[in-house]
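ok new one. same drill as before - structure tokens go in, u give me an amino acid for every spot. 289 of them this time. try not to just spam alanines like last time pls lmao
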């Protein structure tokens, strides 16, 4: 083994759940790749909400730091019982026409939802303008965190958390439901784009009983490690993955400075799990060709 590469891949670490300004993160791809390098990550995936637009600049920035980059996306989906689930797609062909057309549709849904939510805010006396939100977001895939930041910037709330608590979360005055892909559609979309489908942060959805159904729909993996998973969550999902023959994955879900302190570096998974995902990608692609 050469001196320069004396670390075995078993010691390499990866973070497969990261956001940039292309959705509701605060880092640019350059800033995120620099942070990944600072935390000595060997492989990362960018998983912005309902967009792959940040992937080309992130791939370039990662290449400059010698970091392996995996094209990704976090799809907002809906389970059969109506619960919102997030499905991560890895190794996506980001030029896949069907993928791009579906993402563009759901970006339009997100923009329209911002307008509707701002309208609701206006109805309860909060004089925010949708253009303030769009300007602050500066991306095609805006979300509630952008409305929260606009409310703080305009002085209506002291913090983003207050904005969610008072106005933006479910059952609050400005909340509007969002049209979503079904989980079945999300998994099929990912597979037809040559990718691997992983259920994000299962502990945040409190829908463990849905996981066997997702596995039967073709889900490839479970995100066992996540910033908001406790050690017992990790154990439970690793056991469940084992029983259902699902791969395991993990990431910090860092949104930059959006939620206070950046989470990158807090969750790192051993590189062999990345290799398993890549092998699954090869199987998906050979089955699809
Ligand atoms: P959206 O996709 O527009 O529904 O917004 C979802 C984003 O808002 C996710 O990144 C969440 O992490 C964030 N979010 C959801 N609920 C809250 C909350 N109660 N406080 C702060 N952020 C939240
Ligand atoms: Zn987010
Ligand atoms: Fe999520
Ligand atoms: Fe996320």
């Amino acid at each position: 083994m050469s001196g320069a590469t004396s670390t075995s891949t078993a010691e390499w670490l990866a973070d497969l759940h990261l956001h940039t300004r292309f959705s509701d993160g605060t880092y640019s791809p350059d800033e995120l790749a620099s942070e990944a390098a600072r935390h000595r990550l060997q492989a990362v995936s960018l998983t912005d909400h309902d967009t792959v637009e940040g992937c080309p600049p992130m791939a370039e920035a990662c290449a400059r730091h010698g970091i392996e980059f995996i094209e990704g996306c976090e799809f907002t989906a809906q389970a059969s019982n109506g619960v919102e689930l997030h499905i991560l797609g890895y190794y996506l062909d980001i030029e896949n026409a069907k993928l791009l057309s579906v993402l563009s549709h759901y970006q339009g849904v997100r923009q329209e939802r911002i307008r509707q939510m701002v309208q609701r805010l206006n109805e309860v006396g909060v004089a925010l303008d949708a253009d303030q939100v769009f300007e602050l977001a500066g991306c095609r895939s805006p979300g509630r965190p952008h409305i929260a930041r606009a409310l703080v910037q305009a002085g209506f709330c002291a913090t983003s958390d207050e904005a969610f608590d008072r106005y933006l979360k479910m059952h609050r005055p400005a909340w509007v439901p969002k049209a979503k892909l079904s989980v079945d559609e999300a998994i099929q979309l990912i597979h037809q784009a040559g990718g691997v489908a992983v259920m994000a942060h299962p502990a945040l959805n409190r829908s463990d009983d849905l996981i066997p159904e997702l596995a039967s729909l073709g889900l490839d993996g479970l995100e066992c490690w996540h910033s908001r998973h406790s050690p017992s969550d990790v154990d439970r999902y690793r056991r469940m993955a084992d029983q259902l023959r699902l791969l395991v994955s993990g990431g910090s879900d860092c949104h930059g400075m959006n939620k206070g302190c950046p989470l990158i570096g807090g969750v790192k998974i051993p590189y062999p799990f990345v290799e398993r995902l890549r092998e699954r990608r090869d199987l998906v692609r050979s089955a699809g060709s």
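The mean pLDDT is 95. and btw The pocket of fe (iii) ion (ligand 3) is lined by residues 74, 86, 200-201 (CB under 6 Å).
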